[in-house]
Amino acid sequence: MKLSVIDQSPIACGRTAKEALMESMKLAQEAERLGYKRYWIAEHHDLPGLACSAPEVMLGFIGGQTNSIRIGSGAVLLPHYKPYKVAEVFNMLATLFPDRIDLGIGRAPGGSAEATEALSSHFLQNVWKLPELVDELLTFLNGDFPAQYEYSKLSASPVPKISPTPWILGTSERSAELAAKKGIGYNFGYFMSENDGKEIVQKYIDTFKRFKDGAAPEVIITTSAICAETSDQAHEIARCSIIWGIQREKGQGKNGIPSIQEAAEYRLTVKEQERAAKMEEKLIIGNPKEVKEKILEFREAYKADEVMINTNTFSIADRIRSYRFIASELLSP
């Protein structure tokens, strides 16, 4: 069983962004100790309650505080950036931390319209050009320049002995087809999709085999899970994340994830109760045995090679305990 971590570096109510980033480092260290395969950190811009706007900075920090776990971006939002610069950054990380770097690539804006405009004046055009941007990025990473390539004399230095491993992250058929046609791994973000995604993942597998005869597609499915000693405790902890999600949809939640007590006292309208129920349906919640069973069913349903887990809680202790409980059921010898 291969399990990994995707971290959004959430800020708990009453705490600071620096504290959230330090907690992310602790989570990466614990994930390595527990046997998780990789730790990825997300990119968000000007979104209250989320601390990481620059995964490449955190990866340099976390890489120096860990020894073996693969680390990567989940994802670099490529339409904001020039492929050459992204290749330089991740080649440098791969030079510092050999055979440990993943480069997850996404197309989402990762923030508000204002933040998107501040980052890139041509974001929407670059979204449509993503296949070309990915081609350019892969060319710089591989150093395999076709004849007459306009940047053939450039090197995305420093050039590591082992290149970063690219992945496409997405929730649509377009992202699945792009990953398949480029012959790279695909991470379906179930936890942030309105669709269950089984057909999308199958599209990736079928298209990959058609374009890359003899090679094997690689699928990661990302879900949210909260595990505690008892099912009741898990649901109590999960309510913090659910209430925070509802607050953010209303333009609130700027103070971060509410505490268990604050979440319990938060009054929902009838419409919000329906929304909360839908949010809960997307989560894997329960005691260790229940969560183990649900993750195994989830992996089988999606034909996934690996399951990546996102866990947002008010307390870092609850977050780490959740990953520990899951590891004890699925990663223990």
TrEMBL record:
Signal peptide: none
Domain Luciferase-like: 1-301
Protein name according to UniProt: Luciferase-like domain-containing protein
Organism: Siminovitchia fordii
A Pfam entry, by short name: Bac_luciferase
Similarity-based family: To bacterial alkanal monooxygenase alpha and beta chains.
